[in-house]
């Protein structure tokens, strides 16, 4: 039976030298801190790949899982049968896609790091069958940015690592190769800038947005010098705590993302841009809205179903939720 990613990581990484993993984790944190493309391959040896898997893979997996959930809420007809995971590393996005879409029958993970790929393949042996049977292909996007054909391309925590105009070329290549593209980056101003550039490029190619945007006009947050992101809460694994320390049992992974596809989707009325603020008898929602603007909506108890829906709304959710009688 397939293990959860957390259990699969424990099964594979348990015997690793903890001190070597801690040192490699500290180095990776330093490499990723600036958000700028690393000067050399970050996952350059087996211990760096193991450290990445232990301290980052649960978070990138949780982020991609949430992004896919939001995309499926807007486009319930999404049912990819094949995936190319671009810069897929140890395969976090491939796990998330396999779990979200049972129809997926073929997975290819492309990455420049042989150590990340071979560790990813070992972890995947304990995972969903389609991930266990994935192709793990060594490919340096700086040398060749062409991608194999697939229904879905995931580009997860990769664009920010690529130099010069390579992010643009990789987005163009994904448009040529796939029918749906999911770009995920850290929810920082820099991560958002990469996502926003990808959004503009995907729209420029005549594609349509699925999530998070409720419209295809200019992004009002980018125009205001703000950045669109959300926080995904996940439990810290025992392994993670051993490597990074910290008392909290959870972490909040900040994420910026865009999912787009060739066909239009029925976009929602809005999207929640911050943690909603609840006061006695009212909820204040900061929203991106279908008319292309960002503005607050205060929902009061007098609004009945809309108020009850607002009390359950979370940062990043569509608004109003479909299937409720919360419309105006
Ligand atoms: C931060 S990791 C993300 C890994 C995985 N997608 C995830 O979400 O956990 C960035 C990945 O991009 C890969 N990468 C960086 N530059 C690359 C290039 N020029 N060609 C192919 N892969 C590259 C790295 O080897 C690494 O595995």
Automatic annotation (TrEMBL):
InterPro entries per record: Mt_RNA_Methyltransferase (IPR052571), Ribosomal_Rsm22-like (IPR015324), SAM-dependent_MTases_sf (IPR029063)
Alphabetically ordered keywords of this record: Iron, Iron-sulfur, Metal-binding, Methyltransferase, Transferase, Transit peptide
Domain of life, source organism: Bacteria
GO biological process terms on file: methylation
GO MF terms held by the record: methyltransferase activity
Region (Disordered): 307-328
Keyword Iron-sulfur on entry: yes
Key word Iron present: yes
Annotated protein name in UniProt: rRNA methyltransferase
């Amino acid at each position: 039976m397939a293990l959860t990613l957390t259990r699969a990581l424990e099964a594979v990484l348990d015997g690793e030298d903890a001190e070597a993993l801690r040192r490699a984790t500290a180095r990776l944190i330093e490499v990723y801190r600036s958000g700028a493309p690393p000067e050399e391959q970050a996952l350059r040896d087996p211990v760096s790949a193991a450290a990445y898997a232990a301290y980052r893979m649960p978070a990138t997996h949780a982020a991609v899982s949430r992004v896919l959930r939001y995309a499926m809420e807007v486009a319930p007809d999404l049912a990819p049968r094949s995936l190319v995971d671009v810069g897929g590393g140890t395969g976090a996005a491939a796990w998330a896609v396999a779990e979200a879409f049972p129809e997926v029958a073929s997975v290819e993970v492309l990455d420049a790091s042989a150590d990340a790929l071979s560790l990813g393949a070992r972890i995947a042996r304990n995972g969903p069958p389609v991930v266990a049977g994935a192709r793990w292909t060594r490919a340096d996007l700086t040398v060749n940015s062409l991608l194999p054909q697939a229904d879905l391309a995931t580009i997860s925590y990769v664009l920010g690592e690529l130099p010069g105009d390579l992010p643009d070329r990789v987005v163009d290549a994904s448009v040529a190769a796939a029918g749906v593209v999911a770009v995920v980056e850290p929810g920082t101003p820099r991560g958002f800038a990469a996502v926003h550039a990808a959004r503009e490029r995907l729209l420029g190619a005549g594609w349509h947005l699925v999530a998070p945007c409720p419209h295809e006009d200019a992004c009002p947050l980018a125009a205001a010098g703000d950045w669109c992101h959300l926080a995904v809460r996940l439990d810290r694994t025992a392994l993670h705590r051993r490597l990074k320390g910290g008392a909290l049992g959870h972490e909040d992974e900040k994420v910026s993302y865009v999912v787009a596809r060739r066909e239009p989707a029925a976009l929602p009325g809005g999207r929640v841009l911050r943690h909603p603020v609840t006061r006695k008898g009212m909820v204040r929602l900061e929203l991106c809205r279908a008319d292309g603007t960002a503005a607050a909506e205060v929902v009061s108890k007098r609004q009945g179903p809309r108020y009850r829906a607002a009390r359950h709304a979370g940062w990043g959710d569509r608004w109003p939720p479909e299937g409720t009688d919360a419309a105006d």
